[in-house]
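User: Okay, second chain of the day. Same drill as before: sequence in, structure tokens out.
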Amino acid sequence: MLSVPVFVVTLGLTRLLAGALERIGLASLRPLLLLQLLLLVGFLVLCVSAGPRIDPDAPIAILAGMLGVSAMAVQNALVQISLKGAPSTAVMTTNITRFMMDVGDVMLARRPADVAKARDRAMCTWPAIVGFAIGCGAGAICEAAIGLRSLALPAGLALLAVAMSANIEGGQGP
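Assistant: Same drill. Structure tokens below.
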């Protein structure tokens, strides 16, 4: 019951932070990626410190879970705020549905303009779908092999995203 209000509050606070950054002329991508990284690292540290048999009702487990929920909220918000036009990184059923409808439009549409739009959307969406599938597989393998220490993988990827954002915001990226 606590996760939904925490998610909603974190979304609101993330939007306020991004708005404040915009008002002072700073791009929001890197600070939001850094915030997500810090939340994921906190989640990792609390989960690993709690041990392999974490009691889900223990305060440390609840706090860890809320840090994970908050990281997810920041991720959802930053895609909407800082990566406008990019496919969602969290709503894979919507991405897969859109992708399959676009594939159908490419094969069935009669107007060249409709085919071109569908092809462009599909080309933008498929990497998110493939990345999600690879991430799910890697996460499952890591969790089975090393337990909650597997949370180091998303934290490491978040660190990589922060590092890569310097190139994007500096105008050196795609």
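Helices lie at 3-23, 29-50, 59-82, 92-108, 112-146, 152-169.

User: Thanks, on to the next one.
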